[in-house]
């Protein structure tokens, strides 16, 4: 049995935390891209060939082309991310290939990041740091670098899934009123946080801080665009730790430039790693390089979870975080 498993070949498209790598190496022949850069498409297509399991990153496009390249022996693409907008899941299901992700383990880290951006934008932290470093701090003054208060304000959560709810729970220390959108009202969430279910336009009209937590789908692409900036408060701050294309970045740069909203704290971008030029010279935008889940603890948990999903699939079992159980019916 062990010998047969060793014959299974696994590919990991980026370096991952050591413990997760060792877990897989104990069972399979594992190759990892240990250059610290994303593979070019031709390299990726070549590397997945003949693998039984592949651990992919959020910037690896898992489509028919990649699944064809991997071959019919491939049982699983285990995404090292909770978001799976990079994967054609229906096609994987047709082929009997399992797709898994890494939910829950990154909820707190990502919610913390949304709050870090919210506070940094409200209180102009990144701008203040730049001023100090450029020698612009000449002493305390009553009108120097005033930000806005967070306590007592209204927080709008767009998409009250696991991460959205965790962001809302963190607001309890700030006496905030919470509004949220979701596919349906969530009574337990409302009971614990006092949040109110509301439509998107009303949430945008009423919120001082708007934090985005929807998955990227054709429906949420450019969910926040010109019309939405037009109805937000002029004092509003927009936070995005979900996926870049949920915001129309050009429209955002324009809304910030013309004072339609006060600020934005972004961790994700429409054409990552590229950032809309219009945002780069605006102090009103606090920009982070997709660090939502980037803590030592969380990245290790994500790696272990993705590895466990590969282990299960290659044992012929349903991966614990499987997103397409229907693939089992097609699998050989
Ligand atoms: C995810 O898991 O989808 C995150 O964006 C990774 O940080």
Please provide a written account of the structure.
The model has no long low-confidence stretch (mean pLDDT 97). The protein is globular and about 70 Å long. It has a 7-stranded parallel β-sheet, with helices on both faces. Strands 2-1-3-4-5 form a 5-stranded parallel β-sheet, with helices on both faces. The two termini are 18 Å apart. The protein is built from 15 helices and 12 strands. With 332 residues, the protein is α/β, with parallel strands linked by helices. It binds (2R)-2,3-dihydroxypropanoic acid (DGY). (2R)-2,3-dihydroxypropanoic acid binds at residues 58, 81-83, 106, 292-293.
Report how far the terminal alpha carbons are from each other.
Answer: 18 Å
Point out poorly predicted stretches: none
Counting DSSP H or I runs of 4 or more residues, the number of helices is 15
Order of helices and strands: HEHEHEHEHEHHEHEHEHEHEHEHEHH
Total number of beta strands: 12
Relative helix content? 25-40%
- Taking all Cα atoms into account, the compactness measure Rg is 22 Å
Arrangement of strands in the largest sheet: 8-7-6-9-10-11-12
